[in-house]
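Lab notebook, bench 4. Still working through the backlog of constructs that have no structural model yet. Next entry is a single chain of 297 residues. Request: give me the structure tokens for it.
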Amino acid sequence: MNRWGKGLLVVALVVVVAMAFRVSWNALRDIATAIGADDTAATLYPFVVDGLMALALVATLVLTDQARTFALRVLGTYTAASLVLNYVHGLIPKLHGATVDWGRLADWDPANYALVLLATSLPVGSIYFGSDLVAKVLHHRPAPIPAPVANAEESTEVIAKRSRADLAESTPAPVATGPLRMPDPVTVPFEKLALPLKPVPTPAAPTPAPVVERRPVAAAESTRPRRATGRVPAVARSSRPKRTPDQLLDEARRVTADWPDAKLTAEGIRLAVHTSPVNARMLRDTLRGERAGKAAV
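Model written out:
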């Protein structure tokens, strides 16, 4: 849709809203008169209700996230309230007269009280919700718009041009080529080229080195006594005497006498009797077999 189409759509919307406001304005004015409002208050009452609906609609288009949800709730609440009051106005013939005086909005007392409470609370709610919506709109910060792709392409082109210019500067200037010209030959007399040679001394015969007799060196015996390896000192050995399988079984029976079957595990027996995992599993199987035999008897 082009710009003219959007403009016509907005104008049509404004016309429809204005006509709807005029239709609702008569009913809301009579309702305000029925709850005790004077002529000026009754005339302004429709602007309070339907005007806040228009404000909430604009806030819905501007705000985002939780603020937009709040504006939608205000719009829905005041739309429902205006619908209820227009419906009541259509049901009560007394409100349709030329001069409407204070009266009841319903014959049933609870319904009358609820309708009067609704009609009188809408102006106060317009002050609160309208101020909150305006504050949210004024403090709203739209999300930043990302830069278009055309700028990125332009910056890439500039960098490429700069790199080509730098490359042209760093390239050395070409060397001019032409026919080579040999220098003129220089004539040197033969006497200067034939220099007298210095006599080279003859090296003397090398003197043989004396032969040194090598004797085997015996390793020095250590006076420190050697410690026996492969044995554990008595101090490092455990002071607990080695128990036989029967002794382990007796001790396991005594420790686990009051244990339930669920607690009778190999790990629990190993920690209680202080034995190896293999012995603990063997004791567990033996004790469980004994308990199973007693239960069968």
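Notes after review: The mean pLDDT is 75. The chain is about 60% helix and 0% strand. Flag for follow-up if needed.
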